[in-house]
C-alpha cells in the first residue's frame, strides 16, 4: 500500500478521507537574446565556446546544476494547499517574522 505525506507539514495524508494535492514546479534558466545592433559578426564564436568550456569547473556539480531545467513535485494536504495557493512564493510568510521591540 502506498503511503502519502504532506511535503510541507509532514502529516500523513489518507487518500480515503481527504484530497491529496500535487504541485508541480518547473524551473529553467532563460537567456534573453542580444539586440541585433549589439551583435558582432566578426567575433570568433568557436573561440568563445572554447573559452567558456575552459572556464567551467567540471568538478563543481552545484554550478552545473544551476542552469539545468528542473521539475519538482510536491504532495500537499488540503490545509497546506490552501496556504500555497494564497502565497505560492512564500512572500507573506517571510514578511510575518516577528521581532521584539527591544
Summarize the structure.
With 102 residues, the protein is an alpha+beta fold. It has helices at residues 45-55, 61-65, 78-86, 91-95, and strands spanning 4-5, 12-13, 21-27, 70-76. It has four helices and four strands.
Q: Which spans have pLDDT < 50 for at least 5 consecutive residues?
A: none
Q: Which structural class best describes the helix and strand composition?
A: alpha+beta
**What strand line-up does the widest sheet have?**
1-2
Task: Give the overall form.
Answer: elongated
Largest sheet: 2 strands, antiparallel
- Helix count, per DSSP? 4
Provide the β-strand percentage band. Answer: 15-25%
Distance separating the two termini: 53 Å
* SSE topology string: EEEHHEHH
Describe, in plain words, how this protein is organized in 3D.
- With 102 residues, this protein is an alpha+beta fold.
- The chain contains 4 helices and 4 strands.
- The protein has helices at residues 45-55, 61-65, 78-86, 91-95; strands spanning 4-5, 12-13, 21-27, 70-76.
- A two-stranded antiparallel sheet has the order 1-2. It has a two-stranded antiparallel ribbon with strand order 3-4.
- A hairpin with a 6-residue loop joins strand 1 (4-5) and strand 2 (12-13).
- The protein starts with a strand and ends in a 7-residue tail after the last helix.
- The mean pLDDT is 81.
Task: Describe the SSE topology.
Blueprint lengths: L3 E2 L6 E2 L7 E7 L17 H11 L5 H5 L4 E7 L1 H9 L4 H5 L7
Labels describing this entry:
single chain, about 100 residues, alpha+beta, two-stranded antiparallel ribbon, 4 strands, elongated
